[in-house]
Amino acid sequence: MKILYLETSSKNCSVAVSDNEKLICLCEEVSENYKQSESLHTYVEWALEGAGISLKDIEAVSLGKGPGSYTGLRIGAASAKGFCYGLRVPLIAVNSLESMVEPFLGDNYDFVIPLIDARRMEVYTAVYDGGTGKELSDTEAKILDETSFEEFKDKKVLFAGDGAKKAKDILNLPDAVFKEDVYPSAQYLIRKTLEKIENKEFEDMAYFEPFYLKDFHGVKKKKSEE
Question: Fewer Cβ within 10 Å of end Cβ, the chain: N or C?
Fold first, then answer.
């Protein structure tokens, strides 16, 4: 089964193609300027070309659904829906935090905790078992302080993601490992996607929305008071 993967929730614009569990091609780039709008469809073309297949060969589309960049998520969701409608294939959506955990499973950590940088001292996060990848706490927007995650003080913990830098500066966890250069990546959506296909956990495209977690913070014009 040929599957197209899109992950646009962060600074990493990432596209992958797999044949069942085998990764065939990956195209991605981390950019401070969030280049999803200009790069995503080019990366899809490159990934398909690298995989040696055409778009009509795709049998399902998988999307990293967030949390993360509001604009990036909207672009990814719109593109995924467009491909699914055009190809008449199912849409699968995976929590983007799970793709940050996947590469570290089995690396002898008790827990892997992804941290996506949000506003000020806030991060999007959840706690995962370091061996199985099982989600142990719900995804949340968490404001960090010196007492955050103190329940893991005597455990082997990896904090992964661009929110790890500010976490390292404030958390009182001297034995924890912090990896800042970790972003959601399309290549790490494969395992969870295949599980969802097996269980027929497909999205209803008419109602699907990305996992924004928080409302968009834009500049609102005040209504004139009469």
Answer: C
Quote the CA–CA distance of 134 and 154 in Å, as a whole number. Answer: 20
Euclidean distance between CA atoms 184 and 122, whole angstroms: 18
Question: Burial of 19 by CB count in 10 Å (0-12 exposed, 13-18 middle, 19+ buried)?
Answer: middle
* 160 strand-pairing partners: 114, 179
Query: Cα(202)–Cα(88) distance, rounded to whole angstroms?
Result: 13
DSSP secondary structure letter of residue 224:
P
pLDDT, tens digit, for every residue of 120-161?
A: 999 999 999 999 999 999 999 999 999 999 999 999 999 999
- Percentage of the chain modeled with pLDDT above 90: 89
H-assigned helices in 11-170: 36-51, 70-87, 96-101, 164-170
Q: Enter the DSSP assignment of 135.
A: B
What are 63's two structure tokens? 């999307």
Q: What is the reported pTM? A: 0.92
- On the CB side of 117, CA atoms within 13 Å amount to 17
